[in-house]
Amino acid sequence: MRSDSQRNKPTMQTIADELGLSKSLVSKALANKHGVSEETKRQILLTASRVGYRINSSVMTVGTSRTGTITLLLPREDLKDLEYWGQIIHSIEDELSSRLFSLILSGVDMKKPSSLALPSCITDAKVDGAIVMGRISATYVHAIHTKGIPVVLLDADNYGNPTLDHVMADNFGGGYNATEFVLEKNHRRVAFIGDLSYSYSFRERHRGFLACVERYRRSYPHIAFEVIEITAPSEDPGCPFSTEQLRTTLRNHKTLPTVLVCANDPTAFIAIKEMDKMGFRCPDDISVIGFDNLNNDRWLDPQLTSVDARISSM
Fold it and tell me: What is the pLDDT at residue 10?
């Protein structure tokens, strides 16, 4: 007599019934035999994985794939910021795993030419695709293209190339909403902080910031809205803005901003530290709003107000 667990165990017939195929066709696909189209084989493997049918490891690679592997490229210096990128990488790995792909994470040394900086899985064309994240220049993306490897950009520069697939948060809308939030709180002297050369996301958030202030100026011509821009680059390539420019702004009490709209949360954290060094308190003296809603926001007291970019869904 068969036990309940044996009766409920998924079989080839379970997969066949799910997809409306014959059991013999499913058997061929799972044995990696000829006579099954690559797309049908792909659907059978995915269904088998979903229903919990144990598949022989030799056929775990999806049929339409040469290697079953995707590489994810990130500037090496950004690997230090896993509070932000880690959530995105985790979501990508989950999605790829559900589709029977594996992930290779590769740090790119941006100081080296593309011929030396790109990982061997790219130069030897040993992957089925590449996801490019962060501040990787167009030279590297072009080098990947010359290998015939499909590329998707994620929170990167668009390089002025509309043909590249690009996944991004609504940075313009987020910058606009953050600014609208503080203007509705009656702030009239607002500063934007973030090096505009640091990333495409920063430039879009800044654009949203300016658009919102301009709309309020038109809507309320009797109110004076003052914009302060702290957008110069830092001498430290890892810092997302010029701390010296912020300190200069804070020394000028005649034009002291009442709120800092920060291009991302790390910018906000650094800004708050600089304010503290100069004797300013948040939010008593100057309010601060960030962008990304990172987990370590909760360690601040009071907690940082931040735009939730839903980065785990990118």
Answer: 85
| Cβ atoms of 295 and 81 closer than 8 Å | no
Share the mean pLDDT of the chain.
85
Q: How confident is the model at residue 296 (pLDDT cuts 50, 70, 90)?
A: low
Is 159 strand, coil or helix?
coil
What is Dmax (Cα atoms) for the chain? 87
> What are the beta bridge partners of residue 191?
228, 260
Q: How far apart are CA 129 and CA 122, in angstroms?
A: 9
CB 249 within 8 A of CB 191: yes
Measure the CA–CA gap between 49 and 60, rounded to whole angstroms: 9
The model scores a pTM over 0.85? no
Query: What is the 8-class DSSP label of residue 68?
Result: S
- Residues 231-268 have pLDDT tens digits of 999 988 778 999 999 999 999 877 799 999 999 999 99
| Amino acid, res. 56 | N
Cα separation, 255 vs 226, whole angstroms = 9
Indicate the length of the chain as a whole number. 314
Tell me whether residue 117 is exposed, middle or buried, using C-beta atoms within 10 angstroms of its C-beta: 0 to 12, 13 to 18, 19 or more: buried
Evaluate the CA torsion angle 66, 69, 70, 72 in order and state its sign.
Answer: negative
Which string of DSSP letters, residue by residue, matches 194-208? Answer: S-TTT-HHHHHHHHH
Amino acid identity at 34 = H
HSE (CB half, 13 Å, CA atoms) of 114? 15
The stretches of the chain forming alpha helices (DSSP H) are 4-8, 12-19, 23-30, 38-51, 82-98, 114-117, 120-123, 138-145, 171-184, 200-219, 243-251, 265-277
User: How far, in Å, are 56, 218, 274 from residue 99 at the CA level?
Assistant: 16, 50, 46
Phi-psi region of 253 (alpha: psi -120 to 50; beta: other; left: phi over 0): alpha
Which of residues 88 and 272 earns the better pLDDT score?
272
